[in-house]
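Chain entry —
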Amino acid sequence: MLPAFAASAQTPPLAVEEIASGLAHPWSVEPLEDGAYLVSERPGRLNIVTADGTTRTVSGLPDFYAAGQGGLLDVALDPGFETNDTIYFTSSVSGNGGQGTAVFRAQLNRRQASLQAVEQIFVMNRLSGTNRHFGSRIAFDREGNLFFGIGDRGESDRAQDSSDHAGSILRIRPDGSVPVGNPFAASGAAQPEIWSIGHRNPQGITTDPETGTLYTVEHGARGGDEINTPEAGANYGWPEISYGVHYSGAKIGQGTHAEGLEQPLYYWDPSIAPGAIAVYRGKMFPEWDGDFLVTALKDQLLAHIAVDENGMPTAENRLFAGEFGRLRDVKIAPDGAVLVTTDEPDGRLLRIYRP
C-alpha cells in the first residue's frame, strides 16, 4: 500500500484529439470494432459516435431516475458483442422507497441505432431517498460474469451490512442470477450477489485483461480515495477505517487500520475525486504495460500510476491537469490509444495517442 504522489512516473510523448463534443455529462465510452464509439450521457441518452464525430442517439432506453449523481451511468459490451450484439448498462431507477442502482441487458441494433429486448436483470434490494453514491461501473470476469459496484447511497453504515446491497461490489451472471462461488450465497441473511463489502462509492471498476485481477477506484470523503483489489468475502472498511476525514474534519471510525479490514492498494490524500480506472494493455504505449490510468473529477486530470512486476504501485504522474475539465471515464481503444470523457454540460470524447 503506497500513499499517493510518492514519485513521478515517466511520461511518453502524448497528443490529444477531440472526437466529439456537445455531450451532456458523458459517463461512459465503449470503443466498437468498426471505429465508432458507444457513449452514455448521464441525463439519459445513449449515442453511437462515429470516428468523424457524427452522433446518433440510440432509441429504446427504459425510464431512469436522473437527478443529482443519478441517471444513465455505465455501458459495457458483452465479451461476445461482435457476434451477439449484447450490451449491459447501469442506471438509477425509482421505486418503492426511493431510488437505487439497477443493471439492464439489451441487444444493440447498430444499423437502426436502437435497443431491443431490454431487460432489467438486477435492482438493489433497498431503495432510498438520496440522490448520490450510486456507484455503478461494470467489469467482466473470465467466465463472463458481471462485476459492478454500488455506493453506500450517502448512508455510510449500510456499507457494513451484508444484507444490504449498498456499499458493495457485486457479481451476477449475464441473466442476473447468482454465480457459483459467490462468497455470501450460502448465507441466509446476506445478499447472495455480494462479492465484498465496506465500499463507500466505487465509481470505477475494471479487470486486468492479462491477469484477470479485479480493481476498483473509490471516492473517499475528505481524503481517502482508494484503489482496491476486491477479493471474495473481504471487507474494505468503510466507514470503520479510511485515510480521509469527514467533511466536517471529524475522524472517521477507528482511523486508518482495524483488524479484519482490508487496506487499499493505493490511496490519495487529499482527494482527487476519481472517475474511472483502466489497466493499460496496448501497443501504443508499451512503457505503460500493466500500469493504472485513473481519471479525476475534482482535480481535472488523468493519473498514470506505474506498477512493478508484482502489480504494486511505484510512482504517479498527473497528466493534463486543468486542461480539459472534469475527466470521467477512461478506456483503452483497440489500437492502444486512451479514450476519456469529460464530465461537463458540454462534454467531450477525447482520444490520447502517441504523435
In short: The longest helix spans residues 81-84. Helices lie at 81-84.
